[in-house]
Every structure is written in structure tokens, then in C-alpha cells.
């Protein structure tokens, strides 16, 4: 019962009724305008005046479409996204502008909607006025019990309503209840009809299907880029923070007996921290779509030697083996390859500490193979899930996601004779 009376308390019910009532005068205006302007323009098309009239009419009905979108938003409660603006150069000629407008689907979709407003306006006006009139008749029915003169003259003709005397008075007093129920039912019909107007207007006054697909593609691209930036932020800052933790621990361990090494470790921590802050500011600027954010090039395989040197300075015994022409690796594969190496070394620092580690890069005709092997004790059974991507940490999940995007494969796990091995194959071509 509550749902039945709900439209009475909703403002949109009454604004939709106003929209339907305005449909008749607006529909008549649109119909007269379109018929008159097109007839006049076509009739005078043999001279330039007719062409100008047609061009002005097209511009005007495109503008009327914008007005209709605003009315749908305010009165119908159905916001309609505006179509994509025309991509016309500022210095384009009038002929070029006319061709662009004539070839735009919105021009003819808005024309179709303005024509539809005439029959829809008539129907909506009849529904609203009929509902109000019938409701008023039901509510005023008890007044019939006070009639004393059942004959009167209208336009010279005698009207006899004496049949009302045979109707029980109780029926006249029950009709207002019927009127109230009818009015509530009418509000459902009016609200539904307004909603139907909005659904019909959306494909005609909003973006075309092609524009919607293009917008969806752009939004998907933005989300993919943001996801990649989030991965980049995780990999870069995770690696740097892990390096800082290891160096801080090493400095504290030898602070008394080897102060020079401790000072060098602290200097490296300061340098790494500044680099991390710079990288954080850059990536956050990109995530905010900051136009002033510096879009620095992402590291690739050419940065692996520097990464290995940095890890070696942190106390790890590093060995790098590079085979094949790595400079000719495609850029996306090269960047992903760097992140694979970085994440693998970060996991070594997290779970094995400063141990001897070998990084092997092997370029073949059709793939790039990456192998990172450490000689640590290997992760404990309760840490293995975290290393491989389960548990609470990211582990090597980022590596697997990146490699999967390129159609590659990853293998990671403890070695039989101790330590841990990460192997990835990224296809090229």
C-alpha cells in the first residue's frame, strides 16, 4: 500500500506532469518551426537565401535539442549526457562547417526528436488533463445531492437530468474515494509516461552508440593506465623502501666497529629516500591527471646494470649475465622485464637478506628470458605463500600480471639445493 501512494510524495511526479503539459505547446512550436523553415528553405534553395535559411534552421534545431536535454534533466529527472562536440578547425570554411554539421548524426537525431514531440505532446497533454478532469469530477460528485432544479436550458435547448434522483445519495459520497484512488493510479501513469519520454530522448539527444563506445574505450584506457601506474608505484617504492630497511639494519649492526660503512649506508638511505619522494610525487601527479606532472621515462632493461650496482652497494653479492642484443628488445617488453628483475630482487631482500644473487638476461629470436637466483636459505614454509603472492603481501603477483599481459609465463619457487628462483619468459614479436 505504501508503494501505491509513493508517487504522491515524490517531486518528480509533479515535474513530469509539468513536462507533459508543456509537451503540447512545445510540440506545436517545434512542428510549425520545422515545417515552415524546411519548406521556405527548400523553396528558395535556387538562391542563396534558401541555403542560409536551411543552415540557420539546422543550427537552431541543434540548439533546441540542448534545451530539450535540460528539460529532461530538470523536469523528468533523466539527465542526458551531451553528444561529443564537432571537431571543426577554428579557421574552417563555411562549406566545411556545413558538411560537418550535416554529416553529424546528432543533427538528424535531434530533428527526429523535435518531430516526435508533437504527437507525444498531444498524448501527454491528454493524459494529464484527463486525469485531473476525471479526478475533479469524482471529487465533486457529492455536490449532486444538493441539486434541486433538474431542468435547465443550454444554448436554447432544455436539458433534463432528473435521472439523478434515482441514484442513491450514498453512491455520490462514495465516488470521492474512487476519485482519490483514480488520482493515485494516474500519478503512476504520469510518472511512467515521463520516464518513457526520458528513455526515448536519451538515444536521440545524447551521444551516439559510436560515441559511447569511444568514451568507454577512453575510460578503459585511463583505468588501465592508472592500474599500470599503481603497479609502478608499488614496485618502485617497495624496492626503494626495502633497500633503505636493509641498509639501515646493516648500518646499525656495524655502527661501532665500522663507522665509515655506516656513514656510507646512511648516505645511501638519504639518496634513496629523496629518489622515492621524487618518484612518489611524479606518479601521484599522473594519477591526479596533473598536466604539470613530469612524465619521466620508465626504466627498462638498460637500467638493470644500475639496479644491480645499487643492490650490490646494499651488501648483496650481485652477478649480472646479459646475453643477446638487449637494446633491440621492444620498449614494452624491456620495461616489463626491468620490473620483473626489480620485483624479484626486492623479494630477495625481503625474505633472504643480503645474499649472493645472480641475474641472467637472455635474448633469443622470439623471447626474452629472465632468471633471478639467490643462494639464501629459502623462505620459511609460513612465508612461502606471501612470497608467491598469497597471504597479506603483493609478492610476485605484479610480476605474474605484467607477464600475462604480454602472453608470457612465470615460474617461481624454492630451489632443491636452497635459495629461490624466479624465471620469466616474455615473447617478442
Folded structure, characterized:
This protein is an alpha+beta fold and 429 residues long. It folds into 3 domains: 2-205, no CATH class; 225-296; 299-429, Histidine kinase-like ATPase, C-terminal domain (Heat Shock Protein 90), CATH 3.30.565.10. It contains 12 helices and 7 strands. The strands form 2 sheets. Strands 3-4-5-7-6 form a 5-stranded mixed beta sheet, covered by helices on one side. Strands 1-2 form a two-stranded antiparallel ribbon. It starts with a helix and ends with a strand. The model has no long low-confidence stretch (mean pLDDT 81).
The helix/strand order is HHHHHEEHHHHEHEEHHEE
Q: What characterizes the major β-sheet? A: 5 strands, mixed
* Spatial shape: elongated
Total number of strands: 7
- Going across the major beta sheet, what is the strand order? 3-4-5-7-6
Q: How many angstroms separate the termini?
A: 66 Å
The percent of residues in helical segments reads 55-70%
Strand content: 5-15%
Instruction: Identify low-pLDDT runs.
Output: none
Mean pLDDT: 81
Total number of distinct structural domains: 3
So how many helices?
Answer: 12
Q: Label the structural class.
A: alpha+beta
User: What Rg do the Cα atoms give?
Assistant: 38 Å
